[in-house]
Amino acid sequence: MKKITFLKTMLVVVTFGVASENLMGQTLIAGWDFQTTGNGGTAITATSCPSVFVSNFGAGTMHLDGTNGSSTWNSNEIVGTGGTAVNAGVGFSTTITTPACLSLTGGTAGSPTNGKFMVIKLSMAGLSNLVVSYASQGTTTGFTSQVWEYSTNGSTWVPVQTITPIPTLFAAIKLNTITGLDNATSAYLRFSGTGATSGSGNNKIDNIQLVASQMQHVATPTFSIPQGNVNGEQHVNLTTTTDGASIYYTLDGSNPDNNGNGTLYDGNPIVINSTKTIKAIAYHTGLLESVIATATYTFPSPVADIATLRTLPTTGFYTLTGEAFLTFKSATVKANYIQDATGGILLIDPNSKITTTYSINDGITGITGILASSSGMLQFVSMTDPGAATSKGNTVTPIVVNLSNIADYQGQLVTVKNVSILGTGNFEALTSYIINDGNSGNLRTEYPELNFIGYAIPTLNQDITGVVSNHSVLEADLVPRSLDDIVPSILTSVSCSSIDQNITAINGNVLIKASADEIIQIYNTFGQKLIQTLSVEGVNTIPVRVKGVVLVRVGDRFAKVVL
Length: 563
Prior knowledge:
single chain; 563 residues; eight-stranded mixed β-sheet; seven-stranded antiparallel β-sheet; 41% strand
């Protein structure tokens, strides 16, 4: 007799299938063994069973209480009885002694539960391909058919499958895969029975498993031009690596969708000629929509002059529409000092965007870049090449300032008069020297190619021209551009031509017409004495081994001559 029972049981299992063998690659979303409460689930009881069962595993709720589209089941229609280990999932209880499973009975004699609804509610957000499996058995006077339906709103129902006949011994039942609930935030499953003929007939249900697959997202759209600061019309293409996906986009900063807020991308470039933010999302049937991709293309804001530019936030992107004049450039660190009638600024080119070669005093129009600050020095970082100089041979006259207010002229070409330089020996590169015109300040050999590096530090007071920079946030520096920017103060009061034409220069010689025994002194532009001698009557021819400007003093007469 036991052998016949065993064969009958095996026949039922083969007929309905073993659910656990068909759930590979899917995740348990909700499960009921009607016993395990460690995860917050509701246990079945022998009498006075509850009418709402929270899933013992995952997240779902079973309703037999008249809510969410279910029927109101009476207490004698929901009974806890002996269960089974059939279709038990990982962690499910395999205890089968009463109470261990849900038994839906006919209720009182003459009032069977035919047509009453049990409803399971859960979320399928991000999930697809729902599969329902469970163990069931019934008596001959219980339900002869079990009807399953699904809904996304709890009111409109779609048939899934009708299970008939009902096995008389526990067997695993697996429903057809349900795709109509894919990605549904609210998902409903409805169970009802038919064919019961007695109030004492029953159907047992145990080890319910609801499993589904994690849905894949459509690949995030990408942009053919990286976002950032741009200059000039841009033609942006959108792509996604998910074949057959549709892309929707917006240009107003709002989030696009395929339900009215967004333009379907047709494959042609999106033309951008002003600051815009493109947002794009991709859709494909059977997949979750992509992450929204965002790209902002920022066009430069026009700025009329340098003074205005210096007041603007460093977060912006700007084009200097007025002409600025190059007063100094350093090829070694790609530093350029530019100024206009309103102010000056340090233009740097760390990414070699400027490909045009400019000369000192060239006028440049349309410089485009961003602002930055380093050690207290405001910088204009070039982002494009401005193109050919818009003028050449301009004269930029240095502003005469004092060391007390030199910081007010950052980036500009200035002259400080009658300055003493503290130091001995020769000028060294990248070195700060204390200077004084009644107030203390700094002279900085900021750039290694400066041609006075290696020359002796002048002992006389100098009139020094240079650009104003900041080596530190604490103070402004005066940076002479060349040897010609450092001139003995006494020379500035002397005409470039000889006094009464008695002091001239030719072929490397200084010619001086003088009386006998006058003191002749010749200085270089650093104020260093090159020659001192006594004159003879008539024309004195004195060879001088320097090139450029020298100061000649004969008694009380002065002249500045060029060798």
